[in-house]
Amino acid sequence: MSAETAHWEKVCQVGDIPDGGALGLEVGETPVALVRTGGEVFALHDVCSHAEVRLSEGEVYDHTLECWLHGSCFDLRTGKPTGPPATRPVNVYRVKIEGDDVYVSLSKE
């Protein structure tokens, strides 16, 4: 599916996402963590694959989001775990910025 045919949903404005931090929200019924770091915005499933807590409450380091409960780390670009105890990735979603508006697509590529 191309970016032109994906379903994009406006979720917030760039300024709503803390620089170097995360914002948790719902896109439909899907929990999404938006992360702003290094001038980029990323979107991941907002539930840790290890302990099922909100990742958006964790810490951001470069391109890594660390779960606040047990310290599992996830790559913002791929959703793959980069530190234990998590062994399963979380979904990542496409993001586009138009002006100050942030859009997320939950559609598979």
Automatic annotation (TrEMBL):
The keyword Nuclease does not apply. InterPro entries: Rieske_2Fe-2S (IPR017941), Rieske_2Fe-2S_sf (IPR036922). It holds the Pfam family Rieske. Residues 9-104 form the Rieske domain. It comes from the Bacteria. Keywords: 2Fe-2S, Iron, Iron-sulfur, Metal-binding. This is (2Fe-2S)-binding protein.
